[in-house]
């Protein structure tokens, strides 16, 4: 049974999808904590409702990014997790954190990477005029949204879509893909070879 902690900055619907999948017994894991940089995040309410410990690191209360990252790193050490899931965590993790927790951090991104990394991916997709978009769950490396890809799903971009409509369509797939990727990790089924992620059947030793 793995221990999973979540970093989220806002609404937390992906966090909720994880909580629900764990509660349904679909992921062999427990959720050991929510870490947020935003004291107003609705994700906090979701954690409290599910009895998950909450760690609030209000970015505004730190003297700068280094100070905040030091606190984040100690919190991540203290939370006792095998896996950290960035579920709408809207800051870039510092290199030292990525190095310390290498291979143990997943991120969900609302586009088909490597297209449209960074903020407002759905807006970028619409502005570019792509016909297909989607979401990506990947391991976090030191680049921005560049780590090895575990799961992707496509959605069509339809005439008349605006950012909100497209985001909603992508979000439905996010709520399926994130629990799936976390399940694969928790079942020890992810093997990384360079940029390629192989999904093995019953764990690497099977
Ligand atoms: C999701 O669409 C997620 O993919 C995106 O923020 C949203 C959070 O929604 N993340 C990023 O854009 C990270 N670059 P949620 O708080 O309801 O899960």
What does this protein look like?
It is a single chain. Helix 1 (13-23) packs parallel to helix 6. The chain has a seven-stranded mixed beta sheet, with helices on both faces. Strands 8-9 form a two-stranded antiparallel ribbon. The protein is 35% helix and 24% strand. It has 206 residues and is α/β, with parallel strands linked by helices. The protein contains six helices and nine strands, in the order E-H-E-H-E-H-E-H-E-H-E-E-H-E-E. It starts with a strand and ends in a 7-residue tail after the last strand. It has one domain (2-199): Rossmann fold. The longest helix is centred in the C-terminal third of the chain and has 24 residues, at 163-186. Bound molecules: glycinamide ribonucleotide. Residues 8, 10-14, 87-88, 108-110, 121, 171, 174 line the site of glycinamide ribonucleotide.
How many helices in DSSP terms? 6
What fold name stands as the CATH topology? Answer: Rossmann fold
Q: On the 0-100 scale, what is the average pLDDT? A: 96
| Unreliable parts | none
What percentage of amino acids are in beta strands? 15-25%
Assign the CATH architecture.
Answer: 3-Layer(aba) Sandwich
CATH homology superfamily: Formyl transferase, N-terminal domain
Major β-sheet, in short? Answer: 7 strands, mixed
CATH class: Alpha Beta
Number of strands: 9
What is the count of structural domains? 1
């Amino acid at each position: 049974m793995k221990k999973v902690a979540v970093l989220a900055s806002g609404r937390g619907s992906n966090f909720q999808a994880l909580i629900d999948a764990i509660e349904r017994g679909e992921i062999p894991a427990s959720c050991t904590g929510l870490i947020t940089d935003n004291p107003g995040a609705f994700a906090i309410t979701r954690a409290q409702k599910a009895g998950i410990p909450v760690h609030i690191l209000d970015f505004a209360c730190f003297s700068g990014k280094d100070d905040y990252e030091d606190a984040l790193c100690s919190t991540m050490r203290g939370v006792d997790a095998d896996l950290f899931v960035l579920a709408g965590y809207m800051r870039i993790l510092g290199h030292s954190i990525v190095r310390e927790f290498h291979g143990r951090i997943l991120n969900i991104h609302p586009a088909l990477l490597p297209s449209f990394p960074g903020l407002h991916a759905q807006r970028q997709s619409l502005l570019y005029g792509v016909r297909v978009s989607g979401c990506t769950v990947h391991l976090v490396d030191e680049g921005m949204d560049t780590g090895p890809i575990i799961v992707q799903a496509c959605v069509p971009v339809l005439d008349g879509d605006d950012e909100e409509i497209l985001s909603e369509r992508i979000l439905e797939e996010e709520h399926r893909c994130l629990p799936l990727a976390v399940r694969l990790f928790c079942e020890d089924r992810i093997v990384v070879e360079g940029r390629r992620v192989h999904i093995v059947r019953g764990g690497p030793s099977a």
